[in-house]
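Me: I hope this is not a bother. Any chance you could explain this protein sequence and its C-alpha cells? It all follows right here:
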Amino acid sequence: MPRSHMHPESHLVSRIGWLRAAVLGANDGIVSTASLVVGVAAASAGTGEILLAGTAGLVAGAMSMAAGEYVSVSSQSDTEAADLARERRELVDQPAFELEELTNIYVARGLDQTLAAEVARQMTSKDALAAHAREELGILSETAARPVQAALTSAATFAVGAALPLLAAWLSPADLLVVVVSTASLVFLAVLGAVGAKAGGAAIPRATLRVTFWGALAMAATAGIGALFGTTVV
C-alpha cells in the first residue's frame, strides 16, 4: 500500500506513565492544600496563618509526592528488571523450552499450532527477550516504569495544583475565604478531570464528576473538623 494511503494512528498508551503521575500530583495538590486551607480557615485562623499553613503544605506535599512516587515506581522497575534478568538466563539455559512456551502463548491466543510455532520461531530469531517480555511478562517499552520521570512529574504538578487554592485564598476577602477557596478548587478539579480524561482518551463527564466529588468530600470533612474543634487539621 502506498505510504500516502496509510491510515495514521495515534495511540495513547505511551502517556500512561507520566499522565498517571501528573494527574495524581495535580489532584493531590489541589485537594490536600484546599482542604488544609479550608480546615484552618474554618477554625477561625487569620489569613496570614492560613497562607503559611498552605505554603508549608505545598512544600511538604511536593517533596512527599516526589519521594513516594520514586520509591513506588522504583519497586516496580526493580521487579521488571529482575523478571527480565531471569528470562534472559532461561533463554540461554533452556532455549527449546522457552520457544515452546512462546508457541503455547500464541496458541492460547488463537493461532493454530503450526502458525504459532512459526511466529514464535521468527520472533525469537529477531529479539527473543523482547518477545518474551511482551508476551509472557506483559512488559512494554511504552509502559515500563520510569522512577525519575514519575517523581519529577508528581512533584511539579503537585506544586502547581497546590498553588491554585493558595492563590484563591490570597485574593479572597477574609470573610468569604472558605466559600471562595472551596468553589475555586472545585472548578480547578473539574478542569483537571476534563484535561486528564482528554489526554488519556477517557470519558470526560465521568472523570470530571469523579474528581470533583472526592475533592468536595475532602474539603467538607476538613472544614467540619476545623469548625468543630477549632484546630488546624493537616
About this structure: Residues 103 and 117 are 5 Å apart (CA to CA). Confidence is low (pLDDT under 50) at residues 6-15.
